[in-house]
Amino acid sequence: MNIIGPQIKRLCEKNSMAQEELTAQCNLLGWNISRGTLAKIESQVRRVTDSEVALIAKVLNVDISDLYEEP
Predict the structure, then answer these.
(1) CA nearest 57: which of 3, 11, 2, 24?
(2) What is the tens place of the pLDDT at every residue in 5-63?
(3) Are 43 and 4 contacting, i.e. CB atoms less than 8 angstroms apart?
(4) Which end of the chain is more exposed for a tag (fewer CB within 10 A), N or C?
């Protein structure tokens, strides 16, 4: 399980970013991720590596610590 999934979902919704857009941006930076995999991360089914957390933060234009904050 991961603890950042709900924050990713919240930040995407806050920025009006669809799962497809987030995955496309991640793919452009070299992480081959599908929308289904992102859905698993958001629902805390799939684990997330440190490098993946850093990449997601970069795409969402937030600090890594923002992904670990409670809403």
Answers:
(1) 11
(2) 999 999 999 999 999 999 999 999 999 999 999 999 999 999 999 999 999 999 999 99
(3) no
(4) C
Question: 3-state class of 45 per DSSP?
Answer: coil
CB-based burial, 24-53: b 16+ in 10 Å, e otherwise: ebbeeeebebeeebbebbbeeebebeeebb
Taking the whole predicted model, whether its pTM rises above 0.90 is answered as yes
**Residue 70 neighbours by CB under 8 Å, 6+ apart:** none
Distance between CA atoms of residues 68 and 32, nearest Å: 23
Question: Which string of DSSP letters, residue by residue, matches 29-53?
Answer: TT----HHHHHHHHTT-S---HHHH
